[in-house]
Amino acid sequence: MNILISYYSRTGTTRKAAMDIKEVLNKKDIEVKTEEIIDKKNRDGNTGYVIAGKDALMKKKTEIKDISYHPENFDMLIVGTPVWAGKVTPAIRTYLENYKDEISQTAFFCTHGGGGESKTFNDMQEIAGEPKEVLSLRDKDVEERKHLEDISNFLERIL
Ligand SMILES: Cc1cc2nc3c(=O)[nH]c(=O)nc-3n(C[C@H](O)[C@H](O)[C@H](O)COP(=O)(O)O)c2cc1C
After folding, report:
1. How far is the CA of 156 from the centre of ligand 1 (A)?
2. Does 110 contact ligand 1 (Cβ within 6 A)?
3. Which of 44, 139, 141 to mutate to test the pocket of ligand 1 (most atoms within 8 A of CB)?
4. What is the pTM assigned to this prediction?
5. Burial (0-12, 13-18, 19+ Cβ within 10 Å), 159
6. What CATH code is carried by the domain that includes residue 94?
7. How many degrees, rounded to 5, is the angle at CA 79 between CA 78 and CA 83?
8. Is the shortest distance between the CB of 83 and ligand 1 below 6 Å?
9. Which residue(s) pair with 98 in the sheet?
10. How many independent structural domains does the chain possess?
11. Which domain holds residue 81?
């Protein structure tokens, strides 16, 4: 089985979670590639934050950088996003829309400050179909490394 982990991260939490998922898979001798989805729109600072929330709420797409790996070459795609205003980020919305025809089996994960994950997963499911499994992680738990058991359980369920 080969797995692609694609994720967007504005401030690094979702990236950390993606790398932790990768590490667990590597220990199981599963071939994994990671792809960070890059939003070409500047999301920095307070203005970036406010516009990011608005764009997500309005279900806007954005421009993303070219990808390195095509989902069609993998048995499973694990997609990660931060929750923005109870929605999927524009970068991951765009990624899923652009490549949905290449996607077979998915699992979703998100990081958040305390809520909005089920609506975010619904957003993703609307585009890419029903995932095999979902994983929701609090940003604080990722920072404090309290999320590793959740990751292990998530991977047990999808493998
Ligand atoms: C524009 C914006 C909107 C957010 N909206 C929510 C929200 O609705 N619910 C929530 O729990 N956290 C929300 N957050 C917090 C992030 O989801 C959370 O901190 C996440 O782990 C950040 O991931 P990152 O570091 O990979 O960018 C929001 C953050 C941003 C920047």
Report:
1. 26
2. no
3. 139
4. 0.98
5. middle
6. 3.40.50.360
7. 140
8. yes
9. none
10. 1
11. 2-158
Residue 116 confidence (pLDDT) above 90:
no
What is the C-alpha separation between 128 and 1, in angstroms, rounded?
20
Q: In terms of C-beta density within 10 A (0-12 exposed, 13-18 middle, 19 or more buried), how is residue 105 classed? A: middle
Q: pLDDT band at 13, cuts 50/70/90? A: very high
Distance 82 CA to ligand 1 centre (A): 5
What's the chain's average pLDDT? 97
Contacts of 139 by beta carbon, 8 Å cutoff, 6+ apart: 13, 82, 111, 112, 113
Q: Are strands 134-138 and 105-112 parallel, antiparallel or unpaired?
A: parallel
Determine the distance separating the centroid of ligand 1 and the alpha carbon of 60, expressed in angstroms: 16
Pick from 11, 7, 153, 4: nearest CA to 80: 7
Tokens of 97: 């829309």
